[in-house]
From TrEMBL:
Organism the protein comes from: Listeria monocytogenes
Signal peptide residues on this chain, from the entry's feature table: none
InterPro entries for the chain: PDH/Transketolase (IPR051157), THDP-binding (IPR029061), Transketo_C/PFOR_II (IPR009014), Transketolase-like_Pyr-bd (IPR005475), Transketolase_C (IPR033248)
Similarity section: Belongs to the transketolase family.
Protein name: Transketolase family protein
Length: 318
């Protein structure tokens, strides 16, 4: 299985686009070309890369101005700062006027690990999905990241895309067809539905394999688009499986779990929906895996939560 960081794929796709003579692509970074894996892009296309320094508000305003001048502006900046320090500019300069700026939040979630609370981005999805006109996308692996950036290069809508820092094993066997607002079914199952987004999709797949060994049939759903949100896939899971569990590298408030709960609460169902994420507390520091283990977001932790809650629905699943 290939294991490549999604940010590296971003650089490869943008470099390919920049080679076109008629391309109007421009990439902006906030002293983060290394973190964004854009070193090769900067070396080959220095005229297409704008370095603003650590000035997150300014970088979004500049990108909006470039977009209004006919450029296709991609902003690559750490998710923890891009989604917080510049949120007024995102709301007013980009989203309000439906301006074609692509905001790439790099090293999302707990990717920065040991740097701790200041560098965790665990509220970015909650914030960005509340802003009108802004699409919110979290690709699962390198193949879907490539498909997402193909879409971004063709779209004229503003979008926030979260990418992690670490290399991720493939979730797809081949490059998928990305459709904004559509979730993907990576595993079929009728006992439990595991709903995941971003790089937690790989963890969901690993958990489904562990559950299979225990005789549990798990459906794995990839919500690479948080906004617009695929409500129909959630409704189908409510009628076709017996337990829903959403997992995310994000606060339990305002992210994937909240989006799923909004659908569940308006559906005539008695099926339980569990939300696994970072609880309402300052998240610990450590490696990404240590943090996942601590909060039960590892494959083993997810399986344990599912096994503890499946008996509540009775013996009808057997």
């Amino acid at each position: 299985m290939n294991k490549i960081a999604n940010r590296q794929v971003m650089c490869e796709v943008l470099m390919k686009e920049a080679t076109r003579n008629d391309s109007n692509l421009v990439v902006l970074t906030s002293d983060s070309r290394g973190s964004a894996s854009l070193g090769a892009f900067a070396e080959k296309f220095p005229e297409r890369l704008i370095e603003t320094g650590i000035a997150e508000q300014n970088i979004v305003g500049i990108a909006a101005g470039l977009a209004h001048s006919g450029k296709r502006a991609f902003v690559a900046s750490p998710a923890c700062f891009l989604s917080m320090r510049s949120i007024e500019q995102v709301k007013v300069d980009v989203a309000y006027s439906d301006t074609n700026v692509k905001l790439i939040g790099i090293s999302g979630g707990v990717s920065y690990g040991a740097l701790g609370m200041s560098h965790h981005s665990l509220q970015d999805i909650a914030v960005t999905r509340a802003i009108p006109n802004l699409e919110v996308i979290l690709p699962a692996d390198r193949l879907e990241t490539e498909a997402v950036f193909d879409y971004l290069l063709q779209s004229n809508r503003p979008a926030y895309v979260r990418l992690g820092r670490n290399a991720v094993e493939d979730c797809y066997a081949e490059k998928p067809v990305f459709q904004i607002g559509k979730a993907g079914t990576l595993r079929k199952g009728n006992d439990v539905s595991i709903l995941a987004t971003g790089e937690m999709v790989r963890v969901a797949l690993d958990a489904s394999e562990e559950l299979k060994l225990k005789g549990i049939s798990a459906r794995v759903l990839n919500f690479s688009t948080i906004k617009p949100f695929d409500q129909e896939v959630v409704k189908a899971a409510l009628t076709e499986t017996k337990l829903l569990i959403s997992i995310e590298e994000h606060s339990i408030y305002g992210g994937l779990g909240a989006a799923v709960s909004e659908v569940v609460s308006s559906s005539p169902t008695s099926i339980r929906h569990l939300i696994l994420g970072i609880p309402d507390e300052p998240a610990i520091a450590g490696t990404s895996q240590e943090i996942f283990d601590y909060y039960g977001l590892s494959a083993t932790g997810i399986v344990a939560t599912i096994m503890k809650n499946l008996p509540i629905i009775g013996d009808e699943r057997r």
